[in-house]
Design brief:
By secondary structure, this protein is α/β, with parallel strands linked by helices. It is built from four helices and five strands; from the N terminus they run H-H-H-E-H-E-E-E-E. Strand 1, helix 4 and strand 2 form a beta-alpha-beta unit. The longest helix is centred in the first third of the chain and has 15 residues.
C-alpha cells in the first residue's frame, strides 16, 4: 500500500495545537498569538523538537529535509520554528501567517515560501488586526523588508542555499 507521501519517501506529520476552551480546533504559541497557548506560554517549540526526536528514533528521517507548514496560527508557529529550531527545520511553507516573535536570528538559513492574499480581513497586509481578527494579541505594525546576509558555513548536503535572508517580516496576515 502506502500513499502518495510514502510512495515518494516522504512522511507527513500533522500535530494539533492545544485545544481551545470550546474543545474545537487547536492553537499554537506562535509568540504574538494565539489564545490560551500564547497566554500561558506553552512550550510548543519544545513539543515540536521532542516530536522530531521521537519520529527520528522510530523512522529513518533525513535530518536535512525536515520542513514545517502552516496556515494562520500554524503559519505563525512555523515562522517561530524557523527562528528557534533552524538547526532542525530547513524550510517552512506559510499560508496567511506572520512572524510572531520579536527576536528572530536563525542559527542557519531557513528557506521560506510565504503565501498571503490581499483580501485577508484577519491581519491585513498593512499590519495590525483587521475587522475579522481575533484581537487576542498584540500584533506589531509591518516591519521593513528583511536584510540579506551571507550564508554561514553548513554541513554539505543538496539543499545548501547560496544566500539567506531573515524571515520576511513585512507579511502580517494570519
Amino acid at each position: 500500500g502506502g500513499g502518495l507521501a510514502e510512495g515518494h519517501g516522504c512522511m507527513f506529520v500533522h500535530p494539533e495545537g492545544g485545544k481551545v476552551a470550546s474543545g474545537l480546533g487547536g492553537v499554537w504559541n506562535g509568540g504574538i498569538c494565539c489564545g490560551v497557548a500564547a497566554r500561558e506560554k506553552v512550550d510548543d517549540v519544545g513539543f515540536i523538537n521532542a516530536l522530531i526526536d521521537q519520529l527520528s528514533a522510530q523512522y529513518s528521517i533525513d535530518p536535512h529535509r525536515i520542513f514545517a507548514f502552516g496556515h494562520s496560527n500554524g503559519a505563525i508557529m512555523s515562522y517561530r520554528l524557523a527562528c528557534e529550531l533552524a538547526g532542525r527545520i530547513v524550510g517552512i511553507g506559510l499560508y496567511a501567517g506572520t512572524l510572531g516573535v520579536e527576536a528572530c536570528d536563525p542559527a542557519q538559513p531557513v528557506s521560506i515560501l510565504p503565501v498571503h492574499g490581499t483580501a485577508d480581513t484577519n491581519i491585513p497586509n498593512a499590519g495590525r488586526d483587521g475587522p475579522d481578527g481575533t484581537h487576542d494579541s498584540q500584533r506589531p505594525p509591518p516591519r521593513p523588508p528583511s536584510r540579506t546576509r551571507p550564508t554561514p558555513p553548513r554541513s554539505p548536503h543538496p539543499r545548501t542555499p547560496t544566500q539567506a535572508t531573515n524571515p520576511p517580516q513585512h507579511h502580517p496576515p494570519r
